[in-house]
Amino acid sequence: MADLLDLVTRAFAGFVFGRTETQRLPVRTSSAQAQAVYLPTAAPGLGDSGVIIGREVYSGKGYIYDPFQLYGQQLPAPHWLVLGESGNGKSALEKTYVLRQLRFRDRQVVVLDAQGEDGVGEWALIAQELGITPIRLDPLAALDRGIRLNPLDPAITSTGQLALLRTIIEVATGSSLDERSGFALKVAHAYVNETVTDRQPVLTDIVEQLRHPAPTAAEAMNVDVEDVRNWGLDVALVLDRLVDGDLRGMFDGPTTVGIDLDSPLIIFDLSHIDRNSIAMPILMAIVGVWLEHTWIRPDRKKRIFLVEEAWHIINSPFVAQLFQRLLKFGRRLGLSFVAVVHHLSDVVDGAAAREAAAILKMASTRTIYAQKADEARATGKVLGLPRWAVEIIPTLTPGIAVWDVNGNVQVVKHLVTEAERPLVFTDRAMTESAPVPALEAADDAGPVVMEKESTVA
């Protein structure tokens, strides 16, 4: 009776609604074959405007990133931190990112190139390909009419010049200027700017005034001239290093004529400077302030400032404070700061831990290549990475990194085109005696970019 009622019900439903139901026998299969019945899922991407970085490992989707497009929507700040041990693809990522950004008409990039071989920096081939002459800061070359950057360049405001002089001294001595030394420097700088009018003031003028202060400097404080001389003696000795010491020739004369600050790519080649000497943070300070006052302008251009070996910045309290100020220009003047560091422990455990924390907080984008397990756990704790990301960092192969874009965490395989490959892999140890890292190559021969032009202010 029940079967008859069921048949009548089905027939009536088919007559009224115009459809019939069918029954299928169950199919016995494997999980590998049955997975096709589930819809594919993947985390949302970062949009479709910008440059292609590579592919998301888990979904296979193209990974597109541009801090200027994302700013204000998914990014609170356009700054970027790149971490990882040597040989895992940081350099390849930096170079392809810059090459692809330069395809946009409103982009300009400055690179501080602190590494190299054969007497040139790592970016030499890219500069040659683009027809650009790097600004090579070299004490030996500077003595033979090499490149000079003048800390007292009139393009830098008087306030900026004094701040730069103070930073140079504090970096070199490792301590803050006391009030008396600061006063001696201030009056010497003011006197030089007032009296030297027929040419660019230079550091030699400051050193000479510190050693032989004008009587007006003493009168301003109602003290003896000899007191002012004694207050400025240590300052004079520090600045003298830039005039007659191991850094002579690079900063003790007028700025070299012909430095093109309108070039789409500006490369400062620091490869001839000992990276472990006090000279490197002094150079970083001078270049940073010089760029702040001569390069960053409210002209609607989007600027990228990429610094290799950036722990020289973040590990020095005085230079870190200077660059903190520079980073704050990002939101107002369209500057994206890219810091490349081998290990986070290099900076968070250093002398400038507080300043380092402030700079790391400004970096809304973090890219982490392979690290040892202990370093990965420490990095994950500082950056607030999810547990799954921390666990896979030690297992990453060259060219693959964890990307954290303001909480959007993905595993991304970097993609390099055949046209970019000879410009990117410039290390002889990699190209001659070792296999090229397993970075995925693109099918076409041109730089991989999205052709949509950026419109974000």
UniProtKB/TrEMBL annotation:
UniProt organism field: Streptomyces synnematoformans
InterPro entries documented for this protein: P-loop_NTPase, T4SS_component
The keyword DNA repair is annotated on this UniProt entry: no
UniProt superkingdom: Bacteria
Stored PANTHER family: SLR6007 PROTEIN (PTHR30121:SF6), UNCHARACTERIZED PROTEIN YJGR-RELATED (PTHR30121)
GO molecular function, one term: ATP binding
Sorted UniProt keywords: ATP-binding, Nucleotide-binding
Protein name stated in the entry: ATP-binding protein
